[in-house]
Automatic annotation (TrEMBL):
Keywords: ATP-binding, Nucleotide-binding, Transport. Signal peptide: none annotated. Belongs to the ABC transporter superfamily. The keyword DNA repair does not apply. PANTHER family: ABC TRANSPORTER, ATP-BINDING PROTEIN. GO terms for molecular function: ATP binding. It comes from Gryllotalpicola reticulitermitis. Residues 9-235 form the ABC transporter domain. This is ATP-binding cassette domain-containing protein. It holds the Pfam family ABC_tran.
Amino acid sequence: MMSPPPSGIEVIELSKRYGARQVLKRVSFSAPAGSITGLLGPNGSGKSTTMRAMTSLSAPSSGSVLFDGARYDELANPGAIVGTLLDASAHHSGRTAYETVRQAGLMIGSTKQRVHEVVDAMGLATAASRRFGALSLGMRQRVGLAIAFLSTPRYLILDEPMNGLDVESIGWVRNELIRFAHGDGGAVVISSHLLQELQAYVDRVAIISRGELVLEQKMGELKGDAGCEVVVVEADCAALERLLNTHGVESRPLGTPGGYWVKLPSRRLALRLLDARIAPVSLAEGRTHSLEEVYLRMTRGEYELAERR
Ligand SMILES: Nc1ncnc2c1ncn2[C@@H]1O[C@H](COP(=O)(O)OP(=O)(O)OP(=O)(O)O)[C@@H](O)[C@H]1O
């Protein structure tokens, strides 16, 4: 009999209480197979608590989490099937980086060869013999990520995996997540405060505020009314300024008369500008290069020069 296609992760009405304090209130969201779900929220909103409850590291007060229909403790080898990075510092400080990954590998039945592969892939080869306690935050994160990718997981639950990583490592993680979810059909839940980084590739977002889910949406739907930057030329300045003031919109005059750079909170507002013929809007949306693009372009040139020497 054919098994049903994987559905991914379902978080169902998860609640968590610490004494009298309720830190999660009936949080529900889905992280479907083949997609990346960003779990977002301010400091202390409950993201880590949710992720810990998802992986049975702390028992929820009520609610459940299903991985393709099964609870975590019903999975055959949950440590191997669910790759996690929850607290990068939670390892024995006296073990070397290599031993730390190897130890995790022993628990889930990974081969020595696989341990070497992930240690190399995470750029840990030179740090492999250093004590975990002596590693920088970024290096600890790499150890944690190496462990998350050790087995061939079907689900990844990563709490702030980019924390402390340099730009190249962030790029590596991003590519791995895209390959894992979009290529291999895995389900990813990732929390991060780096929203610009996340918005480039997450498929869905679940936003938690004060322990409650306040939004669950596909990125495509969010983009439907996401803000945009536009360049306005030959504007009827008075009419434009009235509109901008009404909506509290950020704008900057350009060098040319009647020219403005305008940051609109929604595309709908841009269309209203056009419809109302308040100002001819050049819909060449202003696209700024991210710091990361500039950084990589600048430093890549430096590497190339160094190689040619
Ligand atoms: N073991 C605990 N005992 C009591 N309260 C806790 C415990 N762990 C977390 N909390 C509380 O639960 C709330 C949610 O914390 P949590 O770590 O899940 O937030 P977060 O969204 O991950 O925050 P951050 O973005 O800062 O990592 C916080 O108010 C925190 O103080």
